[in-house]
Specification:
single chain; globular
Length: 123
């Protein structure tokens, strides 16, 4: 099943700009606990020029898995290519790698804040 999800990553190449992809990744991170609101889904669907909302879900699942692995497994720069299977286009790997690196520190700080909150909340 995971292999089938990776096949949806090329949909990101439909985005008009890196800013669009950045928006998508940030929206996924921001809504990691709640899920995307319908307004964000519509924006992303428009950015990627998708006719069907159902085409969006597999891509979002794939991106969430990628983000989760990158952030929670504390992947270093040299290991990022190992997150992608061979069938992911090199230019897409490079673009996503740059984006993930850009947000790694911020997202890891968010994770630490969440852990501190939950630890203090439990006591």
């Amino acid at each position: 099943m995971e292999q089938a999800l990776w096949g949806h990553l090329p949909l990101l190449l439909r985005a008009n700009s890196k800013d669009s992809i950045e928006f998508i990744l940030q929206a996924l991170w921001r809504t990691r606990k709640t899920g995307l609101q319908s307004s964000d889904r519509c924006i992303i669907q428009d950015m990627l020029q998708l006719e069907n909302d159902s085409d969006l879900d597999p891509l979002l699942v794939c991106l969430r898995m990628l983000i989760r692995r990158y952030v929670y497994e504390n992947t270093c720069k040299d290991d990022i290519p190992k997150l992608f299977p061979g069938e992911v286009l090199p230019e897409l790997q490079k673009l996503l790698t740059l984006m993930l690196q850009k947000f790694q520190r911020e997202w890891q700080e968010d994770v630490l804040k969440d852990q501190v909150f939950y630890c203090t909340f439990c006591f």
